[in-house]
DNA sequence: ATTCTTACA
DNA sequence: TGTAAGTA
């Protein structure tokens, strides 16, 4: 999950963001007021934007040019955020369950090796192989 | 030189 | 949104 960290690393002062997005400082600060982006502040109170913030601002600009108002864009981005987090959660759960599965398989295999009888999981797995007459 | 806030057009 | 003023 290193790439994600990079995209969320505060890097750009507003001057760079202005060049990257071709938005004015006024606009960028205004969007921040409305919580569409949340740049962190340095000790000197200067804003630092992340790569994701820049992407976000570009999307805001695009939607604005297509005629959407700020509140609509805000709702849109919130939904997009929810969806994104849900997908991420599912991925995490999947990874956890697969790790758990491997752990159980290993345990069962070692157990079966000791007492020679079919393990519980072998019984479970047989369901996925129709050629095994049951 | 840059950025920040506030306030008014 | 743009811009001017006074700061940090």
UniProtKB/TrEMBL annotation:
Source organism: Alkalihalobacillus trypoxylicola
Q: Does the keyword Transcription apply?
A: yes
Q: Which Pfam families match?
A: MerR_1 (PF13411)
- Which first-to-last residue range defines the signal peptide? none
Q: Does the keyword Transcription regulation apply?
A: yes
What InterPro entries does this protein map onto? DNA-bd_dom_put_sf (IPR009061), MerR-type_HTH_dom (IPR000551), MerR_fam (IPR047057)
Question: Per the database record, which ranges form the HTH merR-type domain?
Answer: 11-79
**Looking at the record's lineage, which domain of life comes first?**
Bacteria
Q: Which UniProt keywords apply?
A: DNA-binding, Repressor, Transcription, Transcription regulation
What's an example of a GO molecular-function annotation for this chain? DNA-binding transcription factor activity
Q: Which CDD domains match?
A: HTH_GlnR-like
Name of the protein this chain belongs to: Transcriptional regulator
For this protein, the record's Gene3D superfamilies field holds: 1.10.1660.10
């Amino acid at each position: 999950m290193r790439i994600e960290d990079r995209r969320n690393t505060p890097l750009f002062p507003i001057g760079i963001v202005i060049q990257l997005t071709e938005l004015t400082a006024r606009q960028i600060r205004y969007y921040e007021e409305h919580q569409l982006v949340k740049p962190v502040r340095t000790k000197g109170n200067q804003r630092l934007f992340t790569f994701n913030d820049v992407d976000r601002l570009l999307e805001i600009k695009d939607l604005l040019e297509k005629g959407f108002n700020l509140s609509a864009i805000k709702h849109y981005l919130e939904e997009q955020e929810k969806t994104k987090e849900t997908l991420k959660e599912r991925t995490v759960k999947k990874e956890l369950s697969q790790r758990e599965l491997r752990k159980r398989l290993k345990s069962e295999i070692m157990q079966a090796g000791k007492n020679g009888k079919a393990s519980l999981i072998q019984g479970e797995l047989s369901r996925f192989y129709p050629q095994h007459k049951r």
